[in-house]
Amino acid sequence: MSPEQKAWVLTALERAVSDSDTSELHELWEENGPEDLEAWRATILSRLASLKAVG
């Protein structure tokens, strides 16, 4: 994965988990309820941390 691709993926994931104003995906998870939203966000945030840790 090129640095540009990695930056794009990180930006897209950060936008997705930020809030329902910037992400329709976030809005859909939010409609499922707070437990589902937080479980989904935790998974994405974990992946973000892993991607950021990799050179």
Short description:
This protein is mostly helical and 55 residues long. The chain contains three helices and no strands. It is elongated and about 35 Å long.
Characterise this structure.
- The protein has 55 residues and is mainly alpha-helical.
- Helices cover 82% and strands 0% of the residues.
- It contains 3 helices and no strands.
- The radius of gyration is 12 Å and the shape is elongated.
- The relative contact order is 0.15.
The SSE string, one letter per element, is HHH
Quickly give the structural class. mainly alpha
In total, how many beta strands? 0
Helicity, as a percent range: over 70%
Uncertain residue ranges: none
Residue fraction in strands:
under 5%
The average pLDDT score comes to 92
Cα separation of the termini: 11 Å
Quaternary organisation of the protein chains: single chain
**Alpha-carbon Rg, integer:** 12 Å
Which overall shape is indicated by the principal axes computed on the Cα atoms? elongated
List the topology elements:
Layout: H1 3-18, H2 24-32, H3 34-53
Helix pairs in contact: 1-3, 2-3
Based on the model shown, name its key terms.
55 residues; mainly alpha; 0% strand; elongated
